[in-house]
Amino acid sequence: MRARPIPQGEIWIDLGGTIARSQLTAKSLIDEPDEDRYQRRVAWIREQAQERGQGSGALISGLAIIEAMRHPEVRGQPFTRAMPTIQAVLKGPAASESIINKMHSGNYPEFETALHALPLEDLP
Asked: What's this model's pTM, rounded to 2 decimal places?
């Protein structure tokens, strides 16, 4: 039986679209330490979503999840223990455990795509 040779040179990996297109992501909004900056950014994103209409559902529901994750009762708790509180704060389809997990990991493509379609150079 022939064994495959072990590669001896550099291995290049194409990550394609898996790299964040900007430093602004769901995760960076969740973890933003400056409350004033966070509030200004969320207000700007919400305003842009309402003006554009495109992807506004994903942006608005994503912002609701982010706000629930920053709720005072949730801060400082491990994510798994905070999940019931997050779901209690949310209502409707945004309360899906799957979507909340995706937002927490920064891997909710609908939100990230809609977010990066905004003119982020104007972000406060």
From this structure: 0.74
